[in-house]
Every structure is written in structure tokens, then in C-alpha cells.
Specification:
2 domains, mainly alpha, YtxH domain-containing protein
């Protein structure tokens, strides 16, 4: 939560300062950012992240679909509302953990 607050604060501060600096300063910042972004060390990391994402992105829809199917089965079962809620919360936690495993590269398929 603290990280999100810092991110929003940083974005708001950047927006205000950028608005005050004007278009010329914006163009200068943008040009410097693009110079940095085009350097070989940055591009090497960009390629690494792209490869990582491409290798794992195909597992995400399968995991979400499987979790959704399980939740539909739970909700349509003849159990009590409390049991359905508990089972649904458990399944959401399992899906969350599996998605975390995909991000870490340690996921096993359902």
C-alpha cells in the first residue's frame, strides 16, 4: 500500500512540476529519456523482460479460466452460502498463488 501511495504522489508531483515547466522543458525531458532508453544496457533489460513475459503470458488465461470454472461449480453447488463463500475465497487464493508462481517462473499447470 505504501508503494502505491508513493507512486501516486510521485506521479502527481511530476504532473504539477511538468505543467509549470511548460512544453519546452517537457520536450527536453522526453529527449533525455529517449536517449537513455535507447542505450544498450537498457535495451538488454527490455529484451529480457519481453522474453520473460512472452514465456509466461500464455499460462495466465488458462489459469484464470480454470479458476473461473471452479468458482462457477462452487457457486452452483447445493452447499450453504457460508460454505460457498469459504470455498470461493479458497479458490481465489489458489488462483492468486498460481498466478504468482507464473510470475516467478515456478508455476505448475492445473
Amino acid at each position: 500500500m505504501k508503494g502505491k501511495i508513493l507512486l501516486v504522489t510521485g506521479l502527481a508531483t511530476g504532473y504539477v512540476l511538468g505543467a509549470r515547466a511548460g512544453r519546452g522543458r517537457y520536450e527536453q525531458i522526453k529527449a533525455n529519456w529517449l536517449k537513455l532508453y535507447e542505450t544498450e544496457p537498457v535495451q538488454k533489460q527490455v529484451r529480457t523482460v519481453q522474453g520473460f513475459a512472452k514465456a509466461r503470458v500464455s499460462a495466465v488465461p488458462t489459469t484464470l479460466f480454470s479458476g473461473a470454472k471452479t468458482i462457477v461449480k462452487i457457486v452452483s453447488s447445493s452447499r450453504t452460502p457460508g460454505q460457498k463463500l469459504d470455498d470461493t475465497i479458497g479458490e481465489v487464493g489458489d488462483v492468486k498463488d498460481e498466478l504468482g508462481g507464473i510470475a516467478d517462473g515456478s508455476s505448475s499447470s492445473r
